[in-house]
Structure of At3g05675-like ankyrin-like domain-containing protein:
Amino acid sequence: MESSYHRRRHRTWCCSFAVPPSSPDNPPFKPRRPKPEAQSKPTLSSSVPNSPQSSKSTCRIAARIDPRRILSPGRVSPIEDALPDPSPLLDSAPRSRSFRAPVTNPIPPPPMNSAADVSVGVSDGFDVRMSLRGKNGGCIVLELNSVILCANSEVFAGLIGDYRKGSSSSGSNKMCRIEVPEVDNLGVFRETIELMFEEDVPKRLLNIGVYRSIDVLEVSAGIMFTKGVFSCLQYLEAVPWTEEEEEKLRNLFTRFKFDDETTRDILGRLYLHDSEDSKPNVARQLVWSITTCVNANARNELKSLVKGLLCKSSVYEKNHLDLSKDDLYSVCHSCIDSLISLFEEASGTVPNERLTKKDTNKPMIERISTQVDNINWLLEIMLDGQIAEDFVDIWSDQKQLLKMHDNASPMVRYELSRVSAILFVAMATRKLQCRMEVRSGLLQAWFAPMLLDFGWLQRCRKGLDIKVLQDAMGQTLLTLPLKQQHTLFMEWFHHFSRHGTECPNLSKAFQIWWRRSFLRGSETHAIESR
């Protein structure tokens, strides 16, 4: 029993955790042999939720008490299961689990001296003995005041009321016994009962924390402790939750139904109640904001965040991240248009009156690199969603960019080959499957620019694995018909002979093409096997 409740002026409950040891002051009690007629009386059981995690256990109320076992408040009170019960167990089982918020503030418990008005024949107002038995063993005995219990819990009020009717008709005034078996968490159930006698419930909930308060809310709902339910909901709505606490609360709301007025604010944090028509396209707004972000550090951080939310392997549900293929391609077209405008500006073909201060406050190389980063980021999202096939056609059709690539500075034009590199690697690693015509169009358009820009790609890798890129280019070439392979491999051979390491090394793929083109039959098979 907690010592703080001994020091209160009005003691309304006490508890014990085990049977006290034998001592001179507390000799062991030997029950009398029951009378034969007392053993044949029928008994009934009544069910009382005793969660957390359990709401189907039974609560048996008995008037079993021997006058010699009524102890003074604060004393350990063992339960003698062998003692015969002269009165039947009572059956009263409220089933409702719906709660409504009080119209006004909850009515405080009646003054403690009102317990004297209840004619129970027990000193100091302790007229209910509640025994909590845990599933895994252990027992807690609480000696409580029936007035407080009835004022706070509809379940206990019904059980105690039925007992009073039975005891008044028989003319006996004995302590009411309530037994709650199969309790999952004895500490939580005891704390819930203690709240009925607590003057400052919000302060008590603040001390026990969110996770424990959810358990207390579950027990309060099970025993119809309306004040406890309302106080827990108010506290939980006002504090932040961890993901574990949020999931625990979400599970609780699937098992208990509360009044909408009481839980509106909490449910607003758990669920999105807007209709599909009124729901904004949040994912599209996020993508647009990132591609137009001017702060490089913030842009990189947000890219990592949003990509993690949108990727297929994300742990988050994608129901509300309604980013469609059309949305992605719309943003992608915008980035390509901006890239074309920047290359026009770099080539001096854009009139000065069309340039704004926003366009000229950063170096050209940085602005071009930012747009290429945006395109590659969108392309990674498309590849993860397996919707990147159309982008290969779009990139192969950029005749204007290809024309400006021939005339642009090598320090700028190599940025375009960074996009082509992502596509070559995706095809070689089988993340992107395209028709032969599409693969051929991509290589016909961007293979030669890649040969020119490879030296700059080696110096400014920006996360690109050069060895992987070289292997990917060779593997992609080998997916074409042999006639087209001949043209592109010979172009590479001449370029490599002039520029050496400034050109990708496709020797391995070149050997495979040579054997397939000029060696026949079993010889080719034997060589490729080795």
About this structure: The chain is about 55% helix and 5% strand. The first strand starts at residue 13 and ends at 16. Confidence is low (pLDDT under 50) at residues 1-12, 15-49, 51-123.
